[in-house]
């Protein structure tokens, strides 16, 4: 008899698992508490017709299986010219600086110590970029993003996710001293990232295998039975879960194993405007802002990714606002401050047609010191019961969480359950950079 799989979550990792199971002809059920496909890569179209991704997602690929899924989906792909900037001081367009910021120095730092030990993220940035860049950008920006002090954050992820070149070899140079590098382009799905994942489900997954609006209430790990909030129960041989690993451990009464894991909480605040964007924003793809007087740390010009995200004669921008531990504000509470900050860049508040606000309780899995020791122990416990906790928060490894990595985590979890094949994408994303 063939094994059966329960897949919890219809985001990138759950879809990766389900497409692999469909290829193998293995019985499975996908359940998701939400009302749409895509998880954190879903897209929402509001009543005014503006489309919002739930983050500033960029589509990368390191895997032929992911490339196949994108092609098979049939979704059109825009090639967007990368044009990221840093808004250093939040006092107007004059403080906008092109990224990477380390290439905009007027004089090279003399306090670099790249071979010195780095015990945490603060050490890493100080050693590689010097105190001036650390204090102006890296420390305040990363503190806003992670909602954690840098001495509590590991620096291992920087080899994959930070800097201007592969593996983040720091590139320090004087502004204007070298010819600018040719502009790079990145792919983006027409209709938003959610359109891609909906199409992947429609084309590559077993019809009728997904139940939206269905939450797992608990698992009996010995009998391998899941109880769902619609009153039903599901027996399985293996479970690929993309719920937060903290939740998965709670299902089996092992919540104490989550000590040391930390997540950021993010307010996604989008504003849709009629007319053309102001000159300061017209050609940008995203802005980073370290200034603590500006509520957001990143703003993404979604209408520059795909004009259809706003529609003719309109534009829209999504801002990610951190919610620090102890704060109880909602996403809606941030709309006024976000609108005021964009007005400083020339966005006329009188032209706002849409205000989108959604709180994301789990924004980023923070790569805290000692995180992998916690995850290794938790993974051993869960896999002992046939549960593969994978994905952005199922795996809790930021450096393994881009859409292509997430998709492959799901596929590799299935293969490991069936054959013991290695799960290198989850544990060793640096091998695929």
UniProtKB/TrEMBL annotation:
Output the InterPro entries linked to this UniProt entry: Amino_oxidase, FAD/NAD-bd_sf
The protein's matches in SUPFAM superfamilies, at most eight in alphabetical order, are given as: FAD/NAD(P)-binding domain
Signal sequence coordinates:
none
Residue ranges occupied by any Amine oxidase domain in the UniProt entry: 13-248
> Mind telling me which Pfam families this protein's record contains?
Amino_oxidase (PF01593)
Q: Which domain of life is it from?
A: Bacteria
This chain's protein is named Protoporphyrinogen oxidase
Q: What organism does the record attribute this protein to?
A: Mycolicibacterium fluoranthenivorans
